[in-house]
Q: What sequence folds into this?
């Protein structure tokens, strides 16, 4: 059995426990992670170093699965010395490197074929970096500036090509609902189906379902804030789950009772648990009501409570 097949089999057929939880096997059957984007303010300000992310996840939050963002080490994809440091720190602390989120490497749905090909080539170095770190996936974006139909066709073609390359590395290529056409779950499902590759899937995000931004907020990139029209987020996650390799538990602001204001985690977890998903669910705090550390802690607590009651 290939490494990728073994990992997928493990994720989808076995109840997994994280050190993040004190719950019993009956209460918790997913493995909790944390996305590096939760600390994007700290990293960009220099308060946190990319190399310390895995250690922070384990020591401060008792979470042993991490998702990286290539923006924070964008020039290190081929730097084996640097990647070795990342891997050693995660290995030393018993942390699993799950995936790398890839941005700013070109549009896989660009109407210009030459530019699409360049985008595919640009992503390949991150496939190799992901394998080196022990990650099982890279997250890509379904971007393009043409019509829905054309972008869908172009993205599917790019995903098929990138998936064929990444298969030899045991790395899946997964697409997040992340603004533009991709925030329409039905559109994204169609893209995945037409990619026709068994190692191309999805990364459902709780909050990126904005399909029309306010005129004064055109750069919202699928976020709830500044959105004038939103795809039903609960329906969207349900539609993307059959192709999911991981799930992104986006949280924004919290009320005094510890509930996310913008997203009903209890309803969302019923959808996920009802589907029978028992893979990875990673925290991605992006709010302003609390500090990044407090936001991650609140999201962790809410995930555990809402799963237990789903």
A:
């Amino acid at each position: 059995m290939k490494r990728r097949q073994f990992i997928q089999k493990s994720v989808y057929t076995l109840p997994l426990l994280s050190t993040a939880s004190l719950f019993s096997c009956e209460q918790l059957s997913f493995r909790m992670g944390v996305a590096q984007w939760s600390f994007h303010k700290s990293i960009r300000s220099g308060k946190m170093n990319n190399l310390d992310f895995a250690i922070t996840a384990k020591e401060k939050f008792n979470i042993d699965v991490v998702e990286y963002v290539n923006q924070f080490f964008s020039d290190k994809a081929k730097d084996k010395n640097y990647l070795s440091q990342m891997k050693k720190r995660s290995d030393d602390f018993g942390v699993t490197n799950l995936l790398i989120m890839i941005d700013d490497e070109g549009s896989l749905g660009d109407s210009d074929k030459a530019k699409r090909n360049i985008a595919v080539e640009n992503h390949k170095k991150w496939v190799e970096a992901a394998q080196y770190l022990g990650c099982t996936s890279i997250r890509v974006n379904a971007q393009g500036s043409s019509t829905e139909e054309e972008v869908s066709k172009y993205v599917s073609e790019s995903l098929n090509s990138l998936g064929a390359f990444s298969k030899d590395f045991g790395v899946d290529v997964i697409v997040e609902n992340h603004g533009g056409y991709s925030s329409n779950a039905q559109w994204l499902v169609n893209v995945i189906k037409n990619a026709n590759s068994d190692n191309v899937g999805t990364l459902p995000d709780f909050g990126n379902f904005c399909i029309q931004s306010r005129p004064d907020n055109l750069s919202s990139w699928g976020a709830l804030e500044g959105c004038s029209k939103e795809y039903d987020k609960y329906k969207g996650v349900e539609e993307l789950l059959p192709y999911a390799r991981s799930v992104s538990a986006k949280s924004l602001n919290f009320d005094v009772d510890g509930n996310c204001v913008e997203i009903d985690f209890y309803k969302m977890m019923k959808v996920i648990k009802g589907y029978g998903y028992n893979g990875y669910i990673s925290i991605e705090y992006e709010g302003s009501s609390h500090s990044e550390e407090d936001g991650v802690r609140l999201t962790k607590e809410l995930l555990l409570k809402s799963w237990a009651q789903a």
The first strand starts at residue 31 and ends at 35. The chain has a mean pLDDT of 89. Residues 185 and 236 are 5 Å apart (CA to CA).
